[in-house]
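Worked example 2:
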Amino acid sequence: MVRRYLSKATAAGALLLAGSAGAALAQNSYPADEAALYEAAKAEGTVVWYTSAPLEPSIAVALEFEKKYPGIKVEALRLVGVQQFQRFMEEVQANQHNVDVLNLSDQPSMQTLIAENHVADWRVPTHERIPDAFRMGERAYAPYQTNLAIVYNVNGVTQEEIDILGKDWKGVLDPRFKGRFALNTMKCGTCYAAVHMFLDPKLQQEFGEAFIQQVADQKPAIFGESLAALDRVIAGEYDFTYWHFEAIAHTKWQQGAPIRWVYPKPTPSFGNAWQAVSSYAPHPNAARLFQNWVTSEEGASAIQLQYGSSTVLKEFADARSVSKEPWYKPLEEPYYVDFDRWGQNYHRDMEIWTNIINSSR
């Protein structure tokens, strides 16, 4: 079965490889044929996966891979964002090559790994079905997209209010919502994506700092942690979040929480986690097989069902049970983030957001 964590021996470098050997692995050719790749991967027997996603759904996804490819086990360790990048770079510098596949929730860090040739050039079979916004050449892919949503408690809002919130982001300014919603000032990707859109120079007339001030004037409940805000909505203390990401809402909904969600237009959508094969993978064939599977239709289905995120694959139907619910309306107008501007303005923008929102206290 999937191992929920790596042993201390592994983390300390039990899979030690010399730097030259890792470089040689990166230069080898690997079977393009799936059957041949599977046989080579089965001889290795293991995939070590650093994931930024919550551990339980990651394990559930990995178990689907193990069912598809008996004889290959997945060892999963959760390391989020820059923490994962730093851990990986420390291992590289120490010639302790532990990980096969990185799933990194920090786009600039993945760009750095690509620029410095620390991740392998590996074109997945579904490459052409993945939009440009969710791939970095043939080095890294976002296996799923993160879409922002307003998550509401079904006992706290009327259908008329749901329609107002779902129309666009300015719906929150309706006087009836004053003091009824929760938001957060946490620094994270999903916490920033809407702020990134609000402060987009191209949308200055529609949003900008003046709009953020109007949101603050609605006297929201302010939390320093995003999940805390969602939990308070689930508990019925507030009627909706402004905003959250759909995957966690989907997970909570499946667990029976009295929540639903809508996608205001335009809806920030982005690759929140980027997956790539390490150039020094100790199990290089298994790593590539796992990367192929995660970006395949079977992998997309597992991610949808186990993690709750929608797929990036073109021409692949939403397999989530929520898609069949009469209240659910799929995303219609995506806003794809500008990662160049993201990298340049993240800290400044979040300071603007935090200062204005906190002024409402």
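The radius of gyration is 21 Å. DSSP finds 14 helices and 15 strands in the chain.
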